[in-house]
Amino acid sequence: MKPAVQRLLAxxxxxxxxxxxxAESCSDTNVATPFxxxxxxxxxxxxxxxxxxxxxxxxxxxxxxxxxxSSNEADFGPFTANPQVAFNLNLSFDLPETGVFVLGLVxxxxxxxxxxxxxxxIGGLDFDSLEGVATTxxxxxxxxxxxxxxxxxxxxxxxxxxxxxxxxxxxLGWRRRLRRE
Length: 181
Description:
By secondary structure, the chain is of the alpha+beta class. It has helices at 3-17, 51-61, 158-180, and strands at residues 22-23, 30-31, 36-44, 65-70, 87-107, 110-129, 134-135, 146-152. Helix content is 27%, strand content 38%. The strands form two sheets. Strands 2, 3, 4, 5, 6 and 8 form a six-stranded antiparallel β-sheet that branches. Strands 1-7 form a two-stranded antiparallel ribbon. A hairpin with a 2-residue loop joins strand 5 and strand 6 (110-129). The chain starts with a helix and ends with a helix.
């Protein structure tokens, strides 16, 4: 069998194994905000805030991230509801978000990440299309299962770290001096 035919059959097997759902590029999703600064995916698997997930976010977008919550939690986590729609999604937050944060959108065992950076307080986001997570073989978006929110972890500036280190050294010197007396 020719290599091209083998690759085609392998791709068809993956589509059939996923119940006819195909992973799509996150760039196929339209987000109605200028604050979107990056996207990655679609990837296989679900999201739960596991350490491997956070490491993936760090490698994709730089800097450490913290898991905030998921819309499939009992109280919808940091969201006002669990969005389970295919088009025209409005994703609202319990509290407005600001700074750097990442949304993970999960659909039928596939997920994509969307990174935002804003100084304005955002109460929600509108998506014109969720084709960037998963689609049917006909190209139609599969309904969203749930959304996950991550925030960038605060990292102290180098001068802050230097001041803390100097303070710790001063305390150690003071304590040592007290012991000698």
